[in-house]
Design goal:
CATH superfamily of the largest domain: Hypothetical protein af1432
Function: In eubacteria ppGpp (guanosine 3'-diphosphate 5'-diphosphate) is a mediator of the stringent response that coordinates a variety of cellular activities in response to changes in nutritional abundance.
Helix content: 40-55%
Mean pLDDT: 81
GO molecular function, one term: kinase activity
GO cellular component, one term: plasma membrane
Shape: globular
Domain TGS: 399-460
Strand content: 5-15%
Radius of gyration: 31 Å
Domain ACT: 664-738
Distance between the termini: 55 Å
CATH architecture of the largest domain: Orthogonal Bundle
Amino acid sequence: MTVETQQDKELILASYQKLLASCKRSNTPETKAMIDKAFHFAWDAHRGVRRKSGEPYIIHPIEVAEIAAKEIGLGTKSIVSALLHDVVEDTDYTVEDIAHHFGDKVAAIVDGLTKISGAFNQQTSMQAENFRKMLLTLSDDIRVIILKIADRLHNMRTLSSMPLRKQMKIAGETLFLFAPLAHRLGLYKIKSELEDLSLMYEHPEDYKNIAEKIKNKEAEQELVLEQIIQPIKERLTDNNIVCTIINRPRSIFSIWNKIENHKIKLQDIYDLPAIRVIFKPQEGVPEKNQCWNIYSLITDIYKPKPERIRDWMSTPKANGYEALHMTAMGPLGKWVEIQICSNRMNEIAERGFIAHSRYNTDSESELDKWLKDVREILENPESDALAFLDEFRLNLFSQEIQVFTPKGLIKTLPKHASALDFAYEIHTDIGNQCIGAKVNHKLVPLNYILHSGDQVEILTSEKQKPKEEWLEYVVTAKAKSKIKAEFKDNRKRLIRAGNKKLEEYLQSIGLVLNSKATKKLMEHYQFTNKDTLFLNIGSSQLKLDEIERIVKKKSRNKFIKYWKLQLFGSDDKKIDSQVTESKPEIDKKKPFLLEETMSEEKYKIATCCKPIPGDDVVGYVDMANNVTIHKRKCPNALKLMSSQGDRILEANWTSHRLMSFLAIIELNGIDKIGIVNDITSIISKDHHVNMRSIHFESHDGVFEGLIHLYVHNTEDLNNLMKKLIKIKGLDNVRRIENIEEYS
């Protein structure tokens, strides 16, 4: 606790006045009084407490409330809840106190925003449990999720004051769950900012390089956009269309993502410039017709790229987004993406769920259907929080397809969804009994991948039951949870049947089913619990005629067992002592130094990404204090940071000049005589690099090559790549990051 200075009070009151100016929807004396009461309540509760940055703690809830009011457009109860969201967690006040002062609804929202406290099983990730509790509130009030996103946005904006280990954990879970959640709720601006901020902490060098390149091209880009926008503005004004045209630049994260996924250079992203035409609708004319009219006027000026037209008006995205997208060839040979939307569509695009719910009060939207699906999944969540988190995240798909039922109804599914996903989307029973499908009147298997525009008819049989391999066929959380639920129900039925079958059999031979009998059977078959024993009997894996002999078999004399153990020792005892002997505890607050002279027992290199010295890396500490080193950009590392962030530690390389590490580089260019010799000559002359294998292919005058190398560190590798790119005819040299696919 610290003393609150006059300067602190001035800062707090200035922040509060800024919040009040943002509360456009809370303009009655009653709502203003409620917000004021919540502010003073929270201020008193957090008085004297400071954040890591040094500012008074109350500034954080005020800022979260301002994001909720100004950037999302939430109402009074949400603003009050945002001001109070940390009171229960960080002070002596309880949820009951909040209910007494501010009502049950606010108390329920604050409770949903309060992190789980208390002890968990060692195997459980508290981080995943917190996520699960937060997600379960979807069943009650979606404002909890939206406020949690606002809370995370302010935490990301002020993340610089946290230690590096915490930065990695928070940035990782933001990218893994909160940004996709924001996208799914249509909070586009917030989703983009969360992604950019995560990238800034996850890959600072990449972020800095892209930001600098964008800034260097800013003046040139503005000139190009002005040349593109001016003729459009004139043409639309001449046709009495009132509109605003704004620049919609790509976020730094989306550029980085495209460079990483498509392995292209920044200058090769042809649709980098983007503009949005926002028009004021004319009364009595459908907005869709007006969008196509504007499209027609624009294509009189610029030629469109036919395959890059996206009609999100006829079939809106699952988060409610509507617009007409096109890519056209602008002046000076520059491609530009043009988005056409009304004022209403633009508000939904910017503010997502809140604006969407305001405009769509009658019909059930795709977002409403998604929420219904999520609530269905949450009714019976997995007992394992990590598995549950994975299942839920599957439902946060960003790329969607629209497919048709035989009667012509549209169903929205994630990209790469199968016929079996579609079956479960229709109904659980149809999914459970699915034996195949007809796609566009052609018979296909269950795992057939659907595409937008497909018409799908599901074929069923009452004799069909879900199978284990079905989990590999589906990508939606709904389908996975229903298949697992069926397995769980079937397992319970088999356990009950096995218990009854064993009891009846033992009675028939004059024996009783008791703990002594089950213990003998479990020891003989080496089962760890009774359920596994009953399951194997219920599924006819164990023959009943063997059981009589096992149950009637006499136990060895306890004295003999003890004498043998004491006099001759026991291998089991040695094994147990080896298992229980754990490594010394690792201090996660200190950077873990990756020294070249360390033994392999100290740490191991992850096989999924195989980092080499010089790569940005993180360490993951398992239950036995083993450390595994991943690249920061490795998908598995991202998943670990988001679900088990408390086990992540900062890791730094020391100088490495003795050991060699595997790296793979890919080359392509114009095929010419002697180019392979030029490449191998440069590599063989480099004393720090050895080749393990080399593979080249040539077709139609273009060649592609893969070379497996052993290098000491990234410096050696980068120097080699700089030498190679100078070879005449070579167009591109890059390092393969996902090494698992090529090893």
